[in-house]
Design goal:
Length: 164
């Protein structure tokens, strides 16, 4: 939450559609205990863009430096690739964190573009309101998803990311 001024909107967007959101600030230790409870008994991978704080979060959970943290580039204002490989750290018996290298772009493999809408859980109740079977929710005029976006039932930012 230390990297975004609009994290309240992000939290609200995802909680409204049923996701549990844990906010953390690794620099100040906020939210770490709540996150640690959720990790118990699981293998968890921290993934995300370079420089978002995956290693800092891992270090804060362990309360020691076990993963090298990088700096944000002064030139690009983006993270530098510090973590070079996936490392698995044991927090407690049966509880592990995988710290992964950052990335600059994200590509979803194994999901057909025809099935992508099903992964936007807030779209599902609106499918029956589309005029055409197989609606792409992008070009069609009588689309239940697009109407739900206009009525603010579906977040416009989520819809825009779906369209990408």
């Amino acid at each position: 939450m230390d990297l975004s001024d609009d994290y309240d909107k992000i939290i609200d967007t995802y909680e409204k559609i049923g996701y549990q959101v844990i906010t953390t600030d690794a620099k100040n230790g906020l939210g770490i205990e709540k996150l640690a409870v959720l990790l118990k008994g699981k293998i968890t991978a921290f993934t995300g863009n370079s420089g978002v704080g995956k290693s800092a979060l891992t270090n804060n959970i362990f309360k020691e430096v076990i993963s090298e943290e990088g700096n944000i580039s002064d030139k690009t204002l983006k993270g530098k690739h510090t973590t070079k490989c996936v490392e698995l750290f044991e927090i407690a018996p049966d509880t592990f964190i995988a710290d992964t290298p950052g990335f600059s772009s994200y590509d979803v493999q194994g999901i057909s573009y025809k099935d992508l809408d099903k992964y936007f859980i807030e779209f599902v109740p609106e499918f029956s309101k589309c005029e055409y079977r197989g609606c792409s929710h992008i070009k069609e005029k009588n689309c239940g998803i697009k109407r739900a976006v206009e009525r603010r039932k579906i977040d416009r930012g989520r819809y825009n990311r779906y369209c990408l």
